Amino acid sequence: MTADGADDNALLSVRDLRTHIDTGDGQLHAVDGVSFDVAAGETVCLVGESGSGKSVTCESITGLVPSPPVDVVGGSATFDGEPLLGRSDRELRAVRGDRIAHVFQNPQRALDPVYTVGEQVAEPVRIHGTRTEEAPRDRAIELLRRVGIPRASERVDDYPHEFSGGMQQRVAIAIALAADPDLVIADEPTTAVDVTVQARLIDLFRELTDDGTALLLVTHDLRVTASLADRVLVMYGGTILERGPVGDVFSTPAHPYTQALFGSYGERQESDTVRPARGDVPTDGCRFRRECPHVVDACAGGDQPAFHAVEDDPTHVASCVHYAPDGDPSAIRAAAATSSPTAASSSRASSSSKTESSPDRVQSSDPTRADDTRPGVDTDE
């Protein structure tokens, strides 16, 4: 990978992607100069708060944004050396569902209520085929079983409304995998499932990437990110503010927004700084500057600040003026220790070892754990 983040071996390459939404009151810059690569067998995670542009980025790549009011106004996206932007719907349909598959955030809308789940899982097999000689129905049963649907051979003939939300999410994943895609774009694929099924799906995604499938994953869950990601892209205001290997970003979050994002998870002390309510995102300069505790005059005006290496590591970079050659990131680096999920986890572990506690108590405040249980999620297994 080069210093600017480009990967010569990238399967998917996105450069300066820009997508605008006509709101009636003006243009919303939903995606504003996003660039990244995903290589075969690699997992890249897009993280950021709701409204940061993650889903619109993914759907812009394969022409799934509704136009109007949404328009891709600039940039490029290439897949296996071939351009994706500007292609006709017919040309894109030959790619979508075959070499590129989507797992959408809302399975209730993604599934057709008038067809059985088996028919919907089998449809990509009938249209695009697979690398195996399985019959479409047999392939559907095998995939439903693989994503954790109990009694798959019976439930293959059931309709979406007969499944819980978590099961519908698993059916959506099965549909995405049906034609053996080279790239899976998964938008919050583990949100609606309990932690036992989540662990199974994480193992499934690992198997896919081990076999060479690329994974572009959108998630709010830092535990899933820590378990799956090779690299992390942190988004805010339609642009990427930090990118790097998952271990580096988690241990040393470099951009003030990354620190604020990580600090919103887990326990908060009374002395912690509370992030102000989000207002309008600027369309020039640093998109986070109105909320940033380290803002200076150089943060305003012009384009989003250039990426600069963190700790002299060209693979871990932050879009922040304080990391420029003439900047001083010492205050931001000092804050990294308190916002790092891995540092916070170690601190809590050290603290708990000094006090008496129940050995089976769940540390649900630790965002890097995957063995806690959460209320309000699907527990149908």
Which structural category fits the helices and strands? Answer: alpha/beta
Helix content estimate: 25-40%
Major sheet size, sense and barrel closure: 8 strands, mixed
> What integer value in Å does the Rg equal?
21 Å
Total number of helical segments?
13
Shape annotation: globular
Tell me the β content. Answer: 15-25%
Tell me, rounded to a whole number, the average pLDDT: 84
Q: Please give the order of strands in the largest beta sheet.
A: 6-7-8-3-9-10-12-11
Helix-strand pattern, N to C?
EEEHEEHEHHHHHEHEHEEHHEEHH
* Amino-to-carboxy terminus distance: 42 Å
- Per DSSP E runs of 2 or more residues, the count of β-strands stands at 12
Uncertain ranges: 347-381
3D structure, described in words:
There is one protein chain. The protein has 381 residues and is of the alpha/beta class. It contains 13 helices and twelve strands. Strands 6-7-8-3-9-10-12-11 form an eight-stranded mixed β-sheet, sandwiched between helices. The radius of gyration is 21 Å and the shape is globular.
